[in-house]
Predict the structure.
Amino acid sequence: MNLIGKVKATIKKHSMLREKDRVLAGLSGGPDSVCLLLLLNQLKDEYKLDLHAIYIDHGLRPEEIPAEIKFCKNLCENFNIPFITKSIDVISYAKELGLNKQEAARELRYKAFDEIALEKGANKIAIAHNADDQAETFFMRILRGSGQKGLSGIPPLRGKIIRPLIEIERNEIEEFLKSSSQSYVVDSSNIKKDYFRNWLRLTVMPEFTKKNPDLINTISRMSEIIREEDNYLELIVTKTLMKLIPKKTDKTIELFLVPLENMDRVILRRVLRRAIDVVKGLRGISFIHIEDIMGLIKNGDSGDRLYLPKGIRVIKGYSTLILTSELPVKIGTYSLEVPGEIILREAEILIKSSIEEQSAERKAQEKSVAIFDADKVNTPLVIRSRKAGDFFYPAGFGKKKKLQDFFVDEKVPRDERDKIPLVLSGEDIVWIAGYRGDERFNITSETKKIVLLEIKPAR
């Protein structure tokens, strides 16, 4: 079967194209993208395609880009294909998000494809990944310790993205261009071994293919099998999740604990990864993070939590596991008259103050209530969240203690600390609401009047 026949078979197999599709084809001027454009142009009449091509300038090789753009423009003019250029700032984006250049380039490139596709009304975006790219990706992910999803490789079809050359080997592409007398440009960065993929392509893959000349085709088939099995497992995960979620927002998802505790680890890993992807995305999440969450599910106590990269928190509740990327609640600053009351809306609580005569019977019976010597307290009281350098003299302890150390000793989760109200008299902490008062404001045998403070849920 000739190359156009193989590509048509791939397109049909994965339902990549339909009649009257508007296709935006990525065109760099390299052999793969030039081959893709030529083949799509040959299929244009058969599928009644509205075909456009786009060159994306990554800003990484300024000395080569003008010649590449000129080549691509001339090629498109020869075939009467509308040609678009789009510039992206890879260096700035990489610095901003802490990515390497390859990651930043990939993210921005696909964003650019989506933007231009939307602008042009294209419902398909054709990318020139081939079978050699698939094999290289497979080995790269093995070396990085990827699971089954990673080893499934580059999908032939994903949303608007189609890859008609994904089952075509690089040598077939080069032979096609040679027989068509079609020139192309060479990206100088592709012949440097500085990048992992280039090193693998130029150094390792030739040695592997010496041992197995059919290696590329073998890996392509293997990736397809893994992908099909992965898709089947993802279907099971989707059905499982539908029964697990009592509550879900854009940044928080809750999962019933009992089914999780008894779930097979193979499915549990995927359920957790899917949940994390919902609340923040999987960048920075590794195998060990998922294992830690499974350990929390099996062995953790209610209230225990994990802190994952990108601000993700995993909290084991009484009956649910909560995964969230919501910013922790931080209360503002309030003034509290005595007597009086104030609602702290951020924390959904009310603090009430009153003045009473001191009596021997009057004692704080629970953590939500505190009493202090009224003559030692300056009013109005100030209520705020913690600040760096805060300290107090814990009642019953007497010695100066940093608030940070107190929270650590009390095992207060760090994402809960900003919503704990501090009640102050002037600059001095009187009460860490719900936890401990300050020794300096304690009542004595000479106390005549007390300030009574209560913390309640806001209604």
